[in-house]
Design a protein that fits this description.
Blueprint lengths: L2 H33 L10 H23 L2 E6 L8 E5 L3 H7 L10 E6 L5 H15 L3 E2 L3 E4 L5 E5 L1 E4 L12 H22 L7 E2 L4 E5 L17 H4 L5 E6 L7 E3 L2 E5 L4 E5 L6 E5 L6 E3 L2 E4 L1 E9 L13 H5 L1
Parallel strand pairs: 1-13, 4-6
Antiparallel strand pairs: 2-3, 3-14, 5-9, 6-7, 8-17, 9-17, 10-14, 10-17, 11-16, 12-13, 12-15
Helix pairs in contact: 4-5
Bound molecules: 2-oxoglutaric acid and fe (ii) ion.
Length: 327
């Protein structure tokens, strides 16, 4: 028997049950009617009302919590090695309209993509070494230290200094460091262009593009509070496409610190667990609200590589030797 006819049969059976129950009830009422001197006594099926109320309450509770509670889905687990994992999302209107000013830069699709095959482990290590060598000369007292090789900005205590103006930093960076940096940036730029269906040369690197080091230390300034949900295009006006290259492993180098996309449409948080060499790329509009979980232990290194379609916000690749330029 197929499932349809089974279902029909079950329906018939329950109708039948229902009928018998009604007949039984009617009988009871009739008897009572006959017995009463004062005509028919009003009857009310208390028990049925009670069970139905409980049932309805149950259904409402399930619906309420089912829609209220955020589900969590992993977009990329640390243990996975992904060629390419993409998720498309409808572009937010404001963002798409704005981009129409920049032909060749309007995304053919919005959303996000994660790849572990774009940047090799040795490239990631070379960049990690740059970040570490630079950050030794500063470091936030709170949980977030940044180093921007373009502007020279480096967190120090509660402020920022220009690393290129510090004494004793002359030999910190080598020419090869900047070559690596540029090679990786160009690869990411092409991957962003390819994935979102735009012209690579319509994309410009923009400010801020920076290394970040996150720890569990309590925040001392607003710059240390990296865990607030935000839209990159609102936080950093020039951004149209954001990419993140992770230089450390979630669950090995640090705990906490997962990247989380907040998808209101289906009440789902989608997480990207950092993995060394993993690149996450996404459109910077409100279709991609996100935050970084607080790091609970260890140290998390990453680099944010940002792109704009607007040439007036373009920044140059950092060059060696920067120190001489900045004096
Ligand atoms: O480090 C990350 O995973 C994301 C950082 C971020 O959201 C940002 O720089 O805007
Ligand atoms: Fe962000």
């Amino acid at each position: 028997m197929d499932s349809k006819s089974k279902q029909a049969k079950r329906k018939d059976a329950s109708k039948e049950k229902f009928k018998t129950k009604i007949t039984a009830d009617e009988k009871e009422t009739d008897e009572k009617e006959n017995k009463s001197k004062y005509g028919p006594m009003p009857t009310f099926p208390y028990q049925r009302v009670f069970t139905r109320a409980i049932l309805i309450l149950g259904v409402l509770t399930v619906v309420y919590f089912g829609t209220k509670e955020n589900k969590e889905v992993a977009l990329a687990k640390q243990k996975e090695i992904l060629q390419h994992r993409a998720q498309d999302i409808t572009c937010s209107d404001d963002y798409k309209t704005e981009l129409e000013k920049f032909p060749g830069c309007v995304p053919q699709r919005c959303g996000r993509v994660v790849s572990d095959k774009l940047v090799s482990a040795s490239e990631a290590d070379a960049l990690l070494s740059i970040a570490k060598r630079g950050m030794v000369h500063g470091g936030s007292e709170g949980g977030a230290t940044i180093l921007d090789l373009h502007s020279g900005a480096l967190s120090q205590g509660k402020n920022f200094v220009n690393i290129y103006r510090l004494k004793n930093v002359k030999d910190v960076f080598k020419k090869a460091d900047f070559t690596f940096y540029k090679v990786v940036k160009t690869k990411i730029q092409h991957a962003v262009a390819h994935h979102f269906g735009i012209q690579p040369n319509s994309l410009y690197l923009t400010h801020p593009t920076f290394f970040s080091r996150l720890t569990a230390a309590p925040a001392l300034t607003i710059h240390d509070e990296y865990w607030h949900p935000h839209v990159d295009k609102e936080t950093y006006e020039s951004f149209h496409y954001t990419s993140l290259l992770y230089l450390a492993d979630y669950g090995r180098d640090f705990e906490g610190g997962r990247f989380v996309f907040i998808d209101k449409d289906d009440n789902t948080n989608r997480t990207v667990e950092p993995r060394k060499g993993r690149v996450s790329m996404f459109t910077s509009g409100s279709e991609n609200v996100h935050y970084v979980e607080r790091v609970t232990s260890g140290t998390r290194y990453a680099i944010t590589v940002s792109f704009t379609c607007d040439e007036k916000y373009a920044i140059e690749d950092p060059t060696f030797p920067q120190m001489e330029h900045k004096h």
